[in-house]
Write a structure and sequence with these properties.
single chain; 305 residues; 89% helix; mainly alpha
Amino acid sequence: MIDALRKIWVFAGSERKNLNRSVLLGVLYAMFHALQIAALYIVLKGLIEHADGVETAMESLAILAVSILGRSAVEYISQLQRVHAGYFMAANKRIAIGDRLKRVPMGYFNETSLGRITGIATTVLGDVEETASMVLVRTLTGFLNTLILIPMVFAFDWRIGVIFITGITVYLRVTAAMEAKSRLLAPKRQEAQAALVEAVLEQLHGMHVIKAFNLTGKGDERMRGALAESERANLAMERLFTPYVIAQELTLRLFSVLIIAAALYAYLTGTMELLNVLMCIVFSFIAYEQLESAGSALSLLRVVC
């Protein structure tokens, strides 16, 4: 995983500064998002302590307003930086490919298929353009925000912290196993994709021959084979990763339930106040939100890398 992220970072070239800004803005977004928990804490505390309703409502409303406005502004700027980086990192690579092709000897195209080069410059780099920057930013942001959250949870209650970090560890082990499997099939999928583009271009170039000699069903055998191979490669990846995705989801849901169970047990044994129990229940629904976001981005990493 780290090696794949490093490859994207190197590939970005001059667009790294935009990726840096997008990652930092992603961390800031999580901070604004966390303000919702503070607003809820004020409401729950007011209900338990029978505080003035109007004052409590105004305080919560002010915090929520800052949270919503901050998230909107930060997400807008972060997305602009991410899209800019994705577009120009692919555009710069296409220009570099074009400059290189100007200088190759003519015999180069006797050994290398022009359709394959075209497929790389269009379909393959199109995938990179759309997903590479998003995968890098969401993965780094998700893990950074989770790391920031760990000491805060331990400061709140070490028992909840132990459950929280155990869930993270199990999730990362499942993700690492999934990533190891992806290295076997991702190159085959990319090859099948490039071969498909090459076969389609060849079919289009020879369409007049196919029509003239009525070769439909015979002259397009290579394209049909490329379609079948691309379908097989994509389905093989999905079948391979489906059990891991299920395991990831079950892991997060299980440890979220364990956080609730631990909080209720602590309350019944008199070692946790009611307010803290309610906050733990709320926290269980959002505890692994950032980690889950990073995990969903990692599912695309196998394609991008």
